[in-house]
Fold each of these.
Amino acid sequence: MKTFKIFLGTAFLLLLQSNYLFAQGCSDAGFCTVNSFQPNNNDSIKAYHNQIKTGIFFGKADNSISAFGGYIEYNRQLGEKFGFDVKLTSLAQSGNDVSTFGLSDLFLNANYRANEKLKFTLGAKVPLSDAGNSKDNIPLPMDYQSSLGTLDLIVGVGYEIKKLQLVAALQQPLTQNDNQFLASQYPASSELRGFLSTNKFKRSGDVLLRISYPLMIHSKIRLTPSLLPIYHLKNDRFTNQNNEELQINNSEGLTLNGNVYLDYEINRRNGIQLNMGVPFIVRKSRPDGLTRSFIANVEYRVKF
């Protein structure tokens, strides 16, 4: 009970501190939450071959929008070298008198462990929405879509140097979505007039590097700080009201995020994790609606 109180107390302090960390921009197309790209995943199902995780999260987004979501995930280990993950996500957004909710994406990933230090991941993000949400028959910006609406290829590699954990990954869209938002469709008095247009949106890929270092602060509690740079490879594009395809200037570039993971092991089968993230560096233009000034996630996992 004392250990659990320590966990709850630390979680409360982190949540309280997040009020003072409000800053612009955490861009993430979803692949940084893939199980094999997360810190400490190597020991997640060593003693058991199956794991189920479920979680909820809350974040503050651009343009006075709040984002809420949830997910359920299944991890299966097939022998010592192979495994796979399946993850289903959902997202709700609210702000500026607009509220939306929907299923987001299905993540399907296969994992191969070459040895104790080196692992590879190949997978896909399958959209469960075409990013075509509208209000009063007028298309909404990407900030109110539950998914990017793109089918994406995901590849990654992880390596450990003593306790230091490194991950590099690529997420590349193979298709584009059906978003038709043009800011000019809204009156000058509307808050949505200031959003970036994404009609016939063409989103480029992202690469990430995650650097993590776990610290055992108690036999049941682990604190893992993590740095997460994500680079958007090219400027995104959209088609304006004159049917001209244009670049969205300054949408290429670096986002640097900081994460901290707090894990509490209830017993060998069950655990709770609090994960918080904030950005330090952001891209100037972020038309995809994925910006988070901070995000907090609570997860429960069970192994069997």
Amino acid sequence: MGEHGDIRTGRHCVFVLHAHLVFVTKFRHPVFTDAHLNRMEEIMRDVCADFETGLSEFNGENNHVHLLVNFPPKVALSKLVNSLKGVSSRRMRQEFPELARHYYRASKLWSGSYFAGSVGGAPISVLRQYVEQQNRPV
């Protein structure tokens, strides 16, 4: 996409909000194969769509996944995370019963914690110039 290709519009705002999310498996068990990761990406894309959020990038290894999401301001990131983790855990356990051996007594796929970091955005100099231009009479 171009320099402003990720800019989205809502009813009352224009926004570019990206977050990098990392989810780790319970006890960091090496659980996922490529087939698991491919299905996980599909599930997470569906959840993001329900939140009007774009899944820009997805990648993972045997014990964690990385997501880059483009989300609207009305979405509480914690609610998106809870849904991503909950839905993916439930669906993966249903579709891949062999994953259960990694849970021991826990019925959860993911660790209770996660990483969320803000990503991208315009440099301060660009923002300053934009704000200054808003004060000029037309």
Amino acid sequence: MWAPAYAVADELASWLGVDEDTDQLVLAIDAASRAIDRACSRQFGRTDSQTRYYAPQWHRDRWTVSTDDICTEPVVEVEGTVVDVTLLPRNAPAKGRPWTRIEYTGPRGEVAVTAEFGWANVPYPIKYATLVQASRFYDRRENVAGALNKHRVDDVEYGWAASGNQELDADVLASVAPFKRWWAAA
């Protein structure tokens, strides 16, 4: 399933020590999952088999294609002809990661890749980050301004954690950083 929730309500309820508000827990998990997608520039779900199209770039002596995350062996066609490819990074499956590039020699043209896209499994740091961020979102239902992070009584200075410049918790950002997808422009 593409764009799934990276945790379930029972996991978040256990994390928070509550046994209520299942609908609100689900909302918090879904919001946290999508925030993590944005922070990583990728999704950790998995599609059914489908075909996606890409434009290759000539690099040294072969064609290179930056693809969406691929989690199953693809069938690659260039202008209707199946071509043999090298999937990169080569050690991705051994590390529990998807392939993100294809190299091949052969004809020039639009590249059709048929595969299951996404990740075979949601990585544990992503699940952890989802629970941390979802618990923060869930707590916001009690205090929409966020947690107080500064306090000064004389001359009245208050500061709220919900500043517009940081969407994710710092621990979440640290947990998801190794999974950030950097896209290069040609």
Amino acid sequence: METGFIIETIIKAIVILAVFSAIAGFTTYIERKILAFMQRRLGPMNVGPQGVLQIAADGIKLFMKEDFVPQNAARPVFKIAPLITASTAFIAMSAVPFFPEFELFGYTVRPILSDINVGILFVMGVASVGLYGPLLGGMSSANKWSLLGGARTAIQLLSYEVVSGLALLAPLMLVGSLSLIDINAYQAGGFSDWLIWSQPLAFVLFLIAGFAETNRTPFDLLEHEAEIVAGYATEYSGMRWGMFFIGEYANLFTISFIVSLIFLGGFNDLWFIPGGLAIILKVMVLIFFFLWTRAAWPHIRPDQLMWLCWKILMPLAVINILITGFVMMF
């Protein structure tokens, strides 16, 4: 039994790593196409039908491009930084239940790598560590733009982490558990039981914090090309650069699954739609929303991010916790 469990865990880890690495690459193509459509352009068109082989071309370029380390960079830290971003992005997925249980050749498969009773705490903690990748990458590079990007990482980390943590407290008070499976089961009654209806403010606050965590517009301060060239990644090339962005897109999917599980009914059946398909549809809608926002919203300044987080979002999150506590008391 112990050997079977170890083999199953290894297979799940390999599947998660392979599937989400591939999806991260495909998402770059989808993002280009969506942005092009919204801006009345064509996007990738020349490499393969409708430019679909652009993903393969990008992959070949990343593997073939020279991978150099700047002369005055702190070499060990410079090399480790991309590994931190990529590895933490996939480690955070280990406590996320992606689909409901299903049977395969008579064997019950649970699509979660590790069902721990503090799942959401684990995911948020590991995802937070991931921002040390851009921070160390920017600090170790011999480039002032990289250093500015790394400094902005610290600003963003301190600002959005407070909001995301406080935003989750209110729905967790209602559920009474930190397990993502328990949170999903709490909404098993159907569409009307989704936590977004009882916690709309928490949903909005956590979604806004999700933009900052995934370094998406309008909170892409770490690599703002109009101000700091490419920020923390200015000195990176080849697969070291690619690992940063594989981690970024993997985090995008993690946040989308977390939002779906906590606020949108998770993988419970939705009317005639089975749970596995339902959560895929929810995640696709959220991914589209993230991409849509990039096409529609301008960048903000670091001081605007801090002002928004500390003076607007954090007080709203605290008020939401107080209101939820009073409602539960009475």
